[in-house]
Design goal:
- This protein is of the alpha/beta class.
- It has 2 domains: 223 residues, Rossmann fold; 163 residues, Orthogonal Bundle (N-(1-d-carboxylethyl)-l-norvaline Dehydrogenase, domain 2).
- It is 47% helix and 9% strand.
- An 8-stranded mixed β-sheet has the order 3-2-1-4-5-6-7-8, with helices on both faces.
- α10 runs antiparallel to α12.
- It binds 1,4-dihydronicotinamide adenine dinucleotide (NAI) and 1,3-dihydroxyacetonephosphate.
Length: 390
């Protein structure tokens, strides 16, 4: 990565970001919101420009984070009208439109203009659209520019994680990093304290990105465990659908807590099987994000599950969302089960991953939500943790 940075005329020393109190106030910070007041920093001491791919809620949030550090940030959106609206009004016309974006966020629908001088690219396009989107713009993406992905899930067509899709679309030689953790776009934009983790095999790049984004209210940890982080981000959305469904069915706190805990057990089992670390699964991107998504009010996946529990079908709910918002857990649930069958060896995988398999059946309409819950609850007596046997 140092070599890549030199190629982009940046100094080869690590980012030396001075820390001082932020002078500007967050955009629409409510007086009751918790701010950690930890730190703030000036922009990096050499020219950095960040391009964010994806004008959805999370693209807007991450563009705001970077711009608040004083870094010019370009948001690539698909519609020229949306770009003009953002540039004129400093807010998105429909997504979190009550929230003002920092002035350093500029939007464009012109791919070349967005990408030609990018130092870093942040990818926040939903997983299932990622491949076609990247294929359509990849000629304009300069070589060597590192990509930080913020998307969570598994592609239904390839059964790959974001790391696989990115390498297939943009090449094995480029550096990739992955941001995850409990981080709802709206709370980030409101300046409410948020902690995330950035995973990258190259810890120097993870550190640089963490320093680029860290500020008061946005705390960034790093790890080398890419697979652990990606498993957590994908599986927690499926667990969130299950948690929402539990609530929609009118089940209580005991049932929901039991289900979420057992779901985290399946996440841990899969993560370890695929080469992730148990500590990553119990960290921000695994259990941490599961807490936020299952028990907080903001999750779209949880809302999706709630409606399933109330009797709507997955197709009806998807149709009502109209493609303007994603609940990544829906497609990921189907992909997860196929991927487990393909990659994990063993007999009766459905007994090893009863919640993940059960949720896929419910989402595909092969089992009713209450039937699925009963199946999950009626398991024979066994030890709580399989690792206790060793
Ligand atoms: N919204 C949030 O709070 C968080 C979202 N994420 C992740 O970020 C990723 C992006 O999610 P959001 O920004 O919330 O999306 P969103 O639900 O706000 O919007 C979906 C976006 O997808 C874009 N889109 C639709 N069809 C497309 C296509 N064919 N090609 C390119 N783009 C297309 C639309 O422009 C739309 O803005 C997801 O993987 C999500 O799991 C991660 C953490 C928090
Ligand atoms: O990943 C998220 C928060 O960390 C967002 O979750 P939802 O997509 O369910 O809203």
């Amino acid at each position: 990565f140092s070599q890549q940075r030199r190629q982009r005329n940046a100094p080869s020393n690590r980012l030396q970001i001075q820390q001082h109190q932020r002078t500007s106030s967050p955009t629409t910070h409510s007086s009751t919101s918790l701010s950690l007041n930890l730190k703030s920093s000036s922009p990096p001491p050499y020219p950095v420009r960040v391009t964010v791919l994806g004008g959805g809620n999370f693209g807007l949030a991450l563009a705001s984070v970077v711009a608040k550090k004083g870094v010019p940030t370009t948001l690539l959106v698909r519609s020229e009208d949306v770009a003009s609206h953002i540039n004129e009004n400093h807010r998105h016309p429909t997504k979190m439109s009550d929230i003002a974006l920092p002035r350093l966020v500029r939007a464009t629908s012109n791919t070349k203009e967005a990408l030609n001088d990018a130092t870093y690219i942040i990818h926040a396009v939903p997983v299932q659209y990622t491949r076609s989107f990247l294929e359509s713009i990849k000629e304009e993406i300069p070589p060597n520019v590192p990509v930080l992905s913020a998307s969570k899930g598994i592609e239904t067509s390839s059964l790959g994680f974001m790391a696989d899709i990115l390498k297939e679309c943009l090449g094995e030689d480029r550096s990739y990093a992955f941001l995850s953790g409990p981080s709802f776009a709206r709370e980030i934009c409101e300046g409410v304290a948020t902690a995330v983790v950035i995973a990258c095999e190259d810890l120097m790049l993870a550190d640089d990105l963490a320093e680029l984004m860290s500020q008061e209210d946005f705390l960034v940890f790093t790890t080398k465990d890419v697979i652990g982080v990606e498993v957590g981000g994908a599986v927690k959305n499926v667990i969130a659908i299950a948690a929402g469904m539990c609530e929609g069915l009118g089940l209580g706190t005991n049932a929901m807590s039991g289900l979420v805990t057992r779901g985290c057990g399946e996440m841990r089992r899969l993560g370890i099987y695929l080469g992730g670390r148990p500590s990553t699964i119990s960290g921000l991107s695994g259990v941490g994000d599961t807490f936020g998504t299952c028990f907080g009010p903001l999750s779209r996946n949880r809302r999706f599950g709630y409606r399933l529990g109330k009797g709507e079908t997955a197709e009806e709910i998807k149709a009502s969302m109209g493609g303007s918002e994603v609940a990544e857990g829906v497609d990921t649930s189907i992909a997860l089960v196929k991927m487990i069958k393909e990659k994990c060896k063993g007999y009766r995988l459905d007994l090893k991953y009863p919640i993940l398999f059960g949720m896929a059946e419910i989402i595909e309409g092969r089992m009713k939500p209450m039937e699925g819950m009963q199946k999950i609850m009626n398991f024979p007596v066994r030890m709580e943790n399989y690792d206790e046997r060793f």
